[in-house]
Amino acid sequence: MFSEKAKIHADACRFCWMCRHICPVGLVSGKEGNTPRGRALIVSMDSRNIPLTADAAALMYECCLCNACANDCKTGYDPTVFTREARTMAVVNGLVPPEVEKVIDRAMQGSLYAGEPDSSLRAAIERLPEKADTLVYLGDVTLHQSPEMALDLFKVLKAAGVEFTVLRDERASGAHLGDLIGYVDEVRLMSAACAQRIQETGAKKIVVLDPSDARFIKQQWGAWDLLQPDVQVITATSYVAKLLDSGRLRLRQLPYQSTTFHDPCRLARDLDETEPARRIIVAMGIPLREMFLNRKLTKCCSGAIIHQTDPALSKKIAAGRWEDAAATGADLLITACPGCRSVLGSQAPKGKLVRDIFSLLAEAC
Amino acid sequence: MEFRAFMVNMIQSELEDVVGRENVSVNEADKLTYGVDYFWVARMWADKGKKPPAPDFIVRPGSAEEVSKILKIANYYKIPVQTWGGGSGSQGSALPMAGGILLDVKRMNRLISLDEKAMTITAETGMIFQTLEWHANAKGLSIMHIPSCLTCGTVGGALAHRGIGILSTKYGKIDDQCLSMEVVLPNGDIINTLPVPKHAAGPDLNQIFIGSEGTLGVMTKASFRLVKLPEARRFRAFLFKDFVTGIEACKEIVQTVKPSIVRLFDEAETVSIIKKVLGFDKRGAFMNMAVEGNARITAIEEEIAMEICAKYGAMDLGAEYGEKWFENRITFFYPGHIMNNPQMFGTMDTISTYDNVERIYWAMKHAVEDNFPNVRFIAHCSHWYDWGTMIYDRFIMDEPPEDPEEAIRLHNQIWNAGVRAAMQNGGVINDHHGVGLKLSRLMKEQYGPAMQVFNGLKKSLDPNGIMNPYKLGL
Asked: For residue A315, is it within any domain?
């Protein structure tokens, strides 16, 4: 049974088409079942004699949970509420598609990915002090897919004279598992274990590199009361922008002139952080050609989860975002998220390049 | 038609051969999402837990050539084909009532060209209209087709239903904005209309397919004219003592200047929806207006419109309410603002020359409110021409019958009464939502012997009658 909250949101959205134009999945697949309205209709029928099926569950897992629809809604309805809950229902009722189930199994063990985190990154972490007031939380995607981004962030922080630490055995925040199975007890327990390790370091400032983790830690951990109130959580982008503002970081001008910025959805929509990254880019002397869908209107590139559960769909969604970038004429796409870096980087058209903001900062320091 | 044994699989593999396996679906979850559009009956049916109409195959072509092949297959097997764009139509036009193939064209969403020298934009018809408008806006241009369903509907959907946008009084309807089209005929032939719509080379082919609601073929590409985004857009709102006085004033305004927006609300809508969304709480007939384009010209246009409104005794409400209406123009259509189940509701938009407007308004209001207890009737006029105006009449019933069959019966009786009142007094069956399944039965009453023209076209172009059965009276 869906919760009353999920039913209210689904019943509101089932006959409303207003946000379909910004759904990154529906736009590339053309399928009604990939629109918030389509999913809402399916969920709303569960309590009206047409129960959720495995085919319906598959559609629920094709959503990026990027919140573009909720951000667009004039009356505050949120399709991610019933979509996430439908995933919980799918798990409970054994309706999860096999390819998603494999990813869930891995996520339950703490990572979306098979294999160990990058060894050079691990070595760099070993060289950091074990305790410091500032702790950098890298996240699963960074550890496995975008280790260079972490190494570059380390260089930037060192250049600014920041003393920081990183957990040697960093655990998953629960953000990805929460997206895969809903905010259930298993996720809360995973989050609590991670929070406890962070608390044990005594760090008072947590700088979070992956916007997905940052959103989850700031919002869902907050709701679960997992961190002491005196612990400050800040995104890496905002933190570096503050270092820049305070004069601790001096940057040289970089020569890149044909660039655009892809706002990560979690950063832009969930955390309302669209300007710190732009301040940093401007400080490096890089002019931006804005995509038409920028800031809170940003279009998701598919995210780390769909990249694992449905690579073919991920490829199409990323291609959709590359089309937006191509319309600006830019050759270099900058982003501030390890997931976006990895997904967009793997789908970059010929002659186009993805750089994360920290790699540019490391070059400019 | 009932397919026996593995015949379904045979046809499915043939369709997959055209569009790829991933673009054909027969699963029930996908089918469910195509069983409800904005049509009240379809919504009510689902709300009551009844199984929505479902196609046998969902097919998502990626090009006109693929559409052509699909239609050839459909003709061979005599399978119905219902074209689906955004699925946000209010008339049930896209619903797969006859089963068969549901042709979802949203994969056909490429921008073909944006030509600043020609001032034209061409796209495939599966593109969401907002996307097309964004492409134009990025160059400082616009198609100026800004309907409330801008973000929901496709280019093809707007064309198939002869859609209209809020700026129509200055920029016209979709049929004024479309220059040319590519159409796949039911037999699979791909044709193009002439490059421009104004000529003396016989009737305009565009106008045969615009408004045909998928009954005569599938529109696959369309070109539209572009205009520069306006240098200025000035809003002004007024309150007239009553709806009839407002109509006279608005008629004089559109005869004198060229506003983009003129929306005049009757007394009932002024104290209900306008109050709810804009917070305007006075009795009378609320009107908001916009003039736009060159800044100097719009200043003069506004001044003249204000003089006309003053002559008719209107209270000048300033720019604020007009601006607020514009900002909230789509808020009206979101859950919590728009009518919703379990309410029964419908929009009986009609249009006539000025001499009949008042008569139609009262005839429809009486036909609905006098014959059906507990049904409210509200109206506004929001698309104006130098010869007449559209009347956007709506009925609302808060507590319709619980039984779905009784509800459908009552729904159709109300519609029959309202639309017949319009037609008997010089109005037409519909202004800009189309006919679809909802009004199909009334098309013969509307056209009389003229219906043979449509029947002739249908018989000639679609001899097997596969294209969107039960819709448009065809």
From this structure: yes
Question: Does residue B383 lie within any of the structural domains?
Answer: yes
CATH number of the domain residue B239 falls in = 3.30.70.3450
Question: Which of these three, B203, B228, B253, is where a domain ends?
Answer: B228
Which strand (E) or helix (H) includes residue B351? strand B350-353
Is A21–B341 a contact, with Cβ atoms under 8 angstroms apart? Answer: no
Residues B265 and B305 in one domain: yes
B47 to A7, A12, A83, B343: CA distances (angstroms): 13, 12, 19, 11
Interfacial B residues in 281-310 facing A (CB < 8 Å): none
Asked if B36 and A32 come within 8 Å (Cβ–Cβ), the reply is no
Q: What total of structural domains would you count in chain B?
A: 4
In a domain, B473, yes or no: no
Quote the pLDDT of residue B333: 87
C-beta atoms of A50 and B51 within 8 A: yes
Query: Residue B149 domain-assigned?
Result: yes
Nearest-angstrom CA–CA distance, B312 and B325: 22
Residues B123 and B209 occupy one common structural domain: yes
Range of the domain at A183: 119-243
CA atoms of A279 and A272, how far apart (whole Å): 15
Cβ-defined contact of B32 to A42 (cutoff 8 Å):
yes
Residues A192 and A252 placed together within one structural domain of the fold: no
Q: Do B33 and A33 touch (CB under 8 A)?
A: yes
CATH, residue A199:
3.40.50.1860
Q: Is B380 helix (H, G, I), strand (E, B) or coil?
A: strand
**Same domain membership, residue A252 and residue A239:** no
Min Cα separation A124/chain B (Å): 45
Q: Does B33 touch chain A (CB under 8 A)?
A: yes
Considering only the beta carbons, identify the residue of B30, B108, B130 that sits closest to A21.
B130
Instruction: Answer yes or no: are the C-beta atoms of A166 and A136 closer than 8 Å.
Output: yes
Given an 8 Å threshold on Cβ–Cβ distance, is A15 in contact with B86?
no
Instruction: Outline where DSSP puts E strands in chain A.
Output: 134-137, 164-165, 205-208, 232-235, 259-262, 332-335, 353-356
Identify the bridge partners of residue A178 per DSSP, sorted by sequence position: none
User: Does B1 have pLDDT greater than 80?
Assistant: no
Q: What ipTM was reported for this prediction?
A: 0.95
Q: Are A325 and A260 in contact (CB under 8 A)?
A: yes
Look at residue B248 and tell me if it is in a domain. yes
Mean pLDDT of B28-36: 98
Could you tell me the CATH number of the domain that includes residue B223?
3.30.465.10
Quickly state the pLDDT bin for B332 (edges 50, 70, 90): confident
User: What angle do helix axes B243-256 and B295-311 make, rounded to 10 degrees?
Assistant: 140
Residue environment code for B316-329, b if the CB has 16+ CB neighbours within 10 A, otherwise e: ebeeebbbbbeeeb
Asked if the Cβ–Cβ distance from B48 to A55 is below 8 Å, we say no
Which CATH number do you get for residue B82? Answer: 3.30.43.10
Position B461 scores a pLDDT of: 98
In this predicted structure, the answer to whether residue A136 has a pLDDT above a threshold of 80 is: yes
- Residue A131 and residue A226 in one domain: yes
- Which tens digit of pLDDT belongs to each residue from A74-128? 999 999 999 999 999 999 999 999 999 999 999 999 999 998 999 999 999 999 9
| Closest chain A residue to the Cα of B25, Cα to Cα | A31
> What distance in Å separates residue B303's CA from the closest CA in chain A?
34
Find, in chain B, the residue whose alpha carbon is nearest to that of A45.
B49
Residues 6 or more apart in contact with residue A164 via CB below 8 angstroms = A128, A132, A134, A135, A136, A157, A207
Query: Strand, helix or coil at A175?
Result: helix
pLDDT in tens, B251-299: 999 999 999 999 999 999 999 888 887 888 889 999 999 999 999 999 9
- Structural domain boundaries, residue B116: 111-228
